[in-house]
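A quick aside before the break. I want you to see a complete sequence-to-structure record at least once, exactly as it would be stored in a machine-readable document. Don't worry about memorizing anything.
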Amino acid sequence: MSPADASGRDAPGTGAGPDAGPDTGPDAGPDTGPDAGPDAGPDAVALVLDGARALLLDVDDTIVDTREAMVVAGTEALGALWPGREGDHRAMAERYYADPERWFPRYASGAIGFEAMRSGRLAEVARAFAADLPGEAYDAFEDAYAPAFRAAQRLFPDVPHLLASAEDAGLPVALLTNSASAPTRVKLEALELAARFDVVVTTDTLGFGKPDRRVYLEACRLVGVEPGEVVCIGDNIPWDVLGARDAGLRALWLDRAGLGTDEDVVAVGGLDVVAEALAATRFGGSVVDR
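That is the input. The structure line, written in tokens, reads:
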């Protein structure tokens, strides 16, 4: 079974992981000042956007509700593996998504392949629920998961507003995801967005993903914009904010759940906040030129 029909998304992170370092290097993005943080106001958001020439969006749980799609599809697929465990199927799928053994970060780093990552997560669920893993379990899981996952794709309702505002402002929008190219294509095609993005950088592009600084720089190169003029937006602090800033980009943390953080980041509760700020922000020149 090819990974073309499946997502390998990790649970969203809010704390700095082992690969995410502090934003102290010379390539760090602009200082956003005391307004940066879990309750950042519109001025802080506008400052991050001011002078930007491109947006770089995460995909999973940023523009697409991957968590729910994975849980829905996982419930279906795990039901096919263990039909006698009806009461456990959704809890199993939630655990598969949560990935407590951190198989997905290993995949994103390039240490293991897609099938090994998926098989590891499935085996962990079986152990956690004291369930026997049947022969050919991986193929059986993927065969049931794929159509359910495609059918479960949902775009967050604030995404069209952001894309329209970026287009009005003349800003190109690229995607940077730690999923593979094939499952990313499934998501975009299911949502009729495949033609919307000229630049989509996945773990297949360079063989690894965020927070390796090279993937952010590759995305900037493909867009044709210098890193300091690109704003990265996503739901995972180590990958979408700290990693991006370490590579010299600006960044906004998308905190849809209102979790808050002690990290020095500029947070937005939804992409509508960014869309509205775009309408009031100057592009193509730094705030210091005013």
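Two observations worth writing down. Residues 66-151 form one domain. Confidence is low (pLDDT under 50) at residues 1-8, 10-39, 285-290. We'll return to this after the break.
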